[in-house]
Design brief:
By secondary structure, this protein is an alpha/beta fold. It folds into 3 domains: about 160 residues, Adenylosuccinate Synthetase, subunit A, domain 1 (Adenylosuccinate Synthetase, Chain A, domain 1, 3-Layer(aba) Sandwich); about 90 residues, Adenylosuccinate Synthetase, subunit A, domain 2, CATH 1.10.300; about 160 residues, Alpha-Beta Complex (Adenylosuccinate Synthetase, Chain A, domain 3), CATH 3.90.170.10. The chain has a 10-stranded mixed beta sheet with strand order 9-7-5-2-10-1-11-15-19-20, sandwiched between helices. α5 crosses α6.
């Protein structure tokens, strides 16, 4: 049975939760392999809307085992807050597994994230201020705290003392903030230990055994390709690998176990935070996309920057991730437009460039070259078969498919759970 990676193909917020939900009844495990509570999935079930930040969206599907794997950084307080909120709404959260090797976000990570971002002034990256970057920095610097450390008070205290030796100097002498006490941090983390203990497992072992037993495992990426720390628009990126390769390192499942890579892409483009965005709109068209698509961050509430579909970005994502299938979302948002521009290439210093420039400076100054497609006015939210879409909508989808590097296998036509039509089996 397959191991499937599901990632975002643009700058995030593409609707990965809907794609996960589409696969949910055929999947046994859903694994979050990167990021923290800095990304949000919104999933609509009937009349209920669920906003998930740290938890895998598969937690909403009966029978699925949700897993927070080793590549995630975990804010334990946020974890329990989300679990309690879902339990209060009748969702069974008892199957959740958390990797013993996942790193922990502490209060000093959150504090440093906020003060550092403010200190940068106009050079701000646009982080969510939730401590994700500093937690990953500690991981790479080998001074991080892992979930397993919470169950050994001596080790936990040693690690917190080592971390705060340096960080308190920064907070007090550079940022003019108060020092954070070791006991304050240690006692906070220890307070979660007994509640956390039943969830903690060697998740890499669990997942490999599941695959060997013929189970289907879905790896759900946080953020998206263009926010990947290695392959995105650095430095305006997240602090982890949001591309398909991150599924292997972030879970302990080898790359040769992965059968399919599904990338979710919007019928237009959005971005939150700073950084280059060639197709960004600053006129009424951008506001149309923002208001009709309700483009506000699930986690932060920040208005998203909006722009037309960027085919070079989609091709880049297909190449970087080895995409086998695209899921195109929010096609319905484009209903009512007379014409729909699509970026097919860029102009950089008077020269046409057909792929995403490797130079950040070139990408920042890239001017989109557009091809326009006829729009449609018919309501498509009730359509469940591709041939029932208006001809102009079909032509738009087929044009995107031809220029994006992989087939478009499913299309989202509305916010509801069932508002999606399938062209090709995502597991076949």
């Amino acid at each position: 049975m397959p191991a499937i990676v599901l990632i975002g193909a643009q700058w995030g917020d593409e609707g990965k939760g809907k794609a996960t939900d589409l696969l949910g009844s055929r999947v046994d495990y859903v694994v979050k392999f990167n990021g923290g509570n800095n990304a949000g999935h919104t999933v609509v079930v009937g009349d209920e809307k669920y906003a998930l930040h740290l938890l895998p969206s598969g937690i909403l599907t009966d029978g699925v085992v949700p897993v927070i794997a080793n590549g995630v950084v975990v804010d334990i307080e946020v974890l329990f807050h989300e679990l309690e909120a879902l339990s209060a709404r009748g969702v069974d959260v008892s199957k959740l597994l958390v990797s013993a090797n996942a790193h922990v976000i502490t209060q000093y990570h959150r504090t440093l994230d906020k003060v550092t971002e403010r200190f940068l002034g106009k050079r701000q990256i646009g982080t969510t201020g939730r401590g994700i970057g500093p937690a990953y920095a500690d991981k790479i610097n080998r001074v991080g705290i892992r979930i397993q450390d919470i169950f050994d008070e001596n080790i936990l205290r040693q690690k917190v003392e080592g971390a705060l030796d340096q960080k308190n100097h920064l907070l007090v002498k550079i940022y003019n903030r108060r020092a954070i006490g070791v006991d304050e941090v240690v006692n906070d983390l220890l307070s979660f230990a007994e509640r956390l203990r039943p969830m903690v497992a060697d998740t890499g072992l669990v997942l490999n055994r599941a695959l060997e037993a013929g189970k289907t495992v879905l790896f759900e990426g946080g953020q998206a390709t263009m926010l990947d720390v290695d392959h995105g628009t650095y430095p305006f990126v997240t602090s982890s690998n949001a591309t398909s390769g991150g599924a292997a390192t972030g879970s302990g499942v080898a790359p040769n176990r992965i059968d399919r890579v599904i990338a979710v892409v919007k019928a237009y483009t959005t971005r939150v935070g700073a950084g280059p965005f060639p197709t960004e709109l600053f006129d009424e068209s951008g506001e149309f996309l923002r208001s009709k698509g309700f483009e506000f961050g699930t986690t932060t509430g920040r208005p998203r920057r909006t722009g037309w579909y960027d085919a070079p970005v989609a091709r880049y994502s297909a190449r970087i991730n080895g995409v086998t299938d695209f899921v195109l979302t929010k096609l319905d948002v484009l209903t009512g437009l007379t014409t729909i521009p699509v970026c097919v290439a860029y102009e950089v210093d008077g020269v046409r460039v057909d792929e995403v420039p490797v130079s950040q400076s070139d990408f920042h100054h890239a001017v989109p070259i557009y091809e326009e497609f006829p729009g449609w006015s018919e309501d498509i939210t009730g359509v469940r078969a591709f041939d029932d879409l208006p001809q102009a909508a079909q032509d738009y989808v087929l044009a995107l498919e031809a220029m994006s590097g992989s087939r478009i296998s499913a299309i989202g036509v509305g916010p509801d759970r069932e508002a999606i039509l399938v062209r090709h089996d995502l597991l076949g």
